Amino acid sequence: MMGDKDYKQTINETLDILTKETVPQITDPVDSKSVFLHEVIRCMRRSYFDRFDAIDPVGRDFGGVLGGLIRKLPYGSKLGEFAIEEIKLKGQADMLVDDIVIIFKTITGSPENPAAADILYLNGCMWIFGKTEGVIVYLTGEGKETSFALTREKKMFEEVIRRVRVYSNLIADKKTPILEPSSECTTCQYYERCYIKKHDEKQISITELFGTKKK
């Protein structure tokens, strides 16, 4: 505390603002005709909970802060749209440089290959912004950088479109999406909603357990 101002609170508020700029904010959760790219390239059940009954994740993701900072730069991209019949698929890349879409991700160690979700997201951005080339840039806490260049792929985007239609229908019908187990489940703030179920305790005897009867 310095003077009458709580600088720690100010810093935390600033970081929260930057983190929120990582992904577009959903202003109308019940609007099934507006679907965001980040919602369908990951577990749709998690995205659904984020829309209708959100829980803030524990801790702050450095990647989120980084994304917010990058989008403050002159190269920062604007929100784009891709029409799928009456549905608007919306997405935002971290940078648009000439005809190249660039996204940044933080990671603990240099990867040998890009993550599947990151590929889907970058490919979706290329279609949304009408670009044919894209780059995923992975950054570690030590400052190491690993980049992967990709070209636009149609079949991969068709799978995203399929998921967009499914997700849009689930929102309209107010139906929770099915489980999509992945390595991210254990760190998801909704883990207990998916895997921990309340059960009624029932006493059972050894004879009932093994199916034997007293003579």
UniProtKB/TrEMBL annotation:
InterPro entries: Cas4_exonuclease (IPR051827), PDDEXK-like_dom_sf (IPR011604)
PANTHER family linked to this entry: CRISPR-ASSOCIATED EXONUCLEASE CAS4
Protein name: DUF83 domain-containing protein
Species: Candidatus Nitrosotenuis cloacae
Lineage, highest ranks first: Archaea, Nitrososphaerota, Candidatus Nitrosotenuis
